[in-house]
Amino acid sequence: MSMKIALIAHDRKKDEMVNFVIAYEPVFQHHELFATGTTGTRIMENTKLQVHRFMSGPLGGDQQIGAMVATNEMDFIIFLRDPLMAQPHEPDIIALLRLCDVQGIPVATNIATAEILVKALDRGDFAWRELVHKYKPGLDDNE
Q1: Which reactions fall under this protein's catalytic activity (predicted)?
Q2: Is pTM, for the whole model, over 0.85?
């Protein structure tokens, strides 16, 4: 099953993200990738992967990915955050992470956890997401 994976990296983490995606390109090539603006561009420039790009994080890209999480359209997220640099859009970041918790979407915020998730993906450990998509409830007309 093809998974929808979001790749987000703060400025000082973009090189780390690109190197990570290069290392796991054979795994990522079987999945649908999404990213915020510059991160997506850098990944496409350095790999043969296609990436659906959203706006830059501070310009709403985190919220665009959050909308997919809220509707259970994203299977997991790798968000390499820079914990040592204040981010002007910190409320958007917190909202995205909260949505992941609400929807039960796996999210890695550092390279170690990202590697564990990608290795699990390669083993097929995300097959449970098929059930989520198969039995996803429709919108209730009364809501």
Answers
A1: dihydroxyacetone phosphate = methylglyoxal + phosphate
A2: yes
